Each structure stands twice: as C-alpha cells, then as structure tokens.
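seq:
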Amino acid sequence: MSPTTSAITPKSAPLTAQGDDARPRVSVCIPLYQKVDYIGRTIDSVLAQTFTDFELVVLDNGCTDGSAEVVGGYADPRVRVVHHQQTVPQIENFNLSVAHTRAPLVKVLNADDLIEPEALARQVAVMDADPDVVVVSSRHHLVDDRDRIVARDRTLRTPDLVGRCDRAAVVRRVVRHGGNPLGVPGNMLFRRAAFDAVGGFPTEDPFVLDVALAVRLTSVGDFHGLPETLSRFRLASGSMTSSARSRNLRAQRTFVRGLRREHRDVIRRRDVARGVLRYPLTWLRHQVI
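struct:
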C-alpha cells in the first residue's frame, strides 16, 4: 500500500508564507477516518492559531463518507493531505500520520477534536524555554456534537502535574489516578526526535494510546503540564457504548498494572494503594461521562 500526497492549491496566501523547502516549526497531524460531520471544525480550529509557523498534515485513512472531500475544500497551503487507499488500524494510522510530518515539534489531533487559538503559541513557548522537556500537555473541555461544553478543565487537576515533572512523578501520578490524568492527544505537543526514540505510539490498545505515549516519552525527557485549558475533546453521540466503556476500563487497569511492573524503581506501595482505593471513582466517572 503506497500513500499519495496532495498539496492543496491556495486561493490566498497564509499568514506565514512558506517556500517549498521550508521546514515549519510545528506539525499538527490529523489521523482521519469517517469524520465528515466534524473534520471541518477541527481544521478550522488549527488554522485559527495565533502561532502560524506550522503545517497541517491530514492522513485520509481510506475515508468513504466524504471526509476527504471536506479537507480538499481548504485552500491554505499549510494543509497537506496524505491519502491511503486501504484502511489501516487506528494506532498504525496515528503512527503513520506522525511519519509524514516535517517539523521538530508535533501535535496529533483527533479528527473531531478542537484546539484553542493560543494552544500552539503557549506550548511552543514551553518547548523553546526548556530543551529537556519532550512533551507538554494542557487541560481540555469535553464538548458534545454541537460544540457545547459538558465538562470543564479535565486532566492535570492536581498540582503535582503542573509545571515540569520527571518520569517518577508522572508514573506515580498515573498509578495513583488509575486512568489518564495527563491529557488526550490534542492536549499534547511533543518533540519528534523523542517520539522516534521511544518507538512512537504503543501497539497494544487504542484506549490508552495517549497516556501510554506520554509515559514513554518521559523515558527520554521531562513532562510539562500547563494549567490552561487549550483543547476540546469531543463526546460524539453514541461514541462510547456500555461495552466500549467496559473495555476502556479494562485497558486502563491493564496499563496501570504494566506500569507497576515496569517502573518498580519509582512506584511506591502507597501509590498502588491509592490507585486501588480510587478505582470505584474511576468506574463512576466513566459511567457518568
């Protein structure tokens, strides 16, 4: 299977013009599959950034619902589309989307999520200020099909994840939380070199690909948590069935058990105990959402 790439013909110049050989400072990539109702809003949120030195790479994973045609309607030359004729599994699609980026800093954005106008500016500033940080995350709102906020300021809810954190702090907090306290893909900006060094997104379960990547990245550098809310994660109608919620919980528990085995050098008994005691709250949160 060989992808084809199409550059969209511009109708007008972008805010920051780039030559054919220019390397943008940031790549935002969108792994796209069957999101015709949302992809336009997602792209609009990227093109509305106050930081303009970026490329937007959309990987069309064999869409048949008109999603690719929506992307094709954009005239901004920063938008680049990669087409796959055959659909690949989700995590492979995410890894392939990063493989097509050119910038040293990368954000992977779900095809139905949104980022706030200051997202790239705030996160690039963190990366520029501290070369030892390999991934920066933020908080997010949960929104419904019509972009209405249904829950505010999710993730990074405790002071120990705000600011710069090393591997020990991140792993301990995930074990105590029992789920994902670090953020969804759209919350994060990471260094491409670090992503390549750790082997990209994990190949186990898509339900934990975001938290698993963030933890992996802390093996080669530090995590930085921003207290601002810079993205919006969509809870689309019917997107999480009862069986999917159960699978999500199982995936999280399996992931946390793996962390406890793999990071015995930093995990303490009290971290494990707090995670076990907190599990009923984790279960309840999934049911309510």
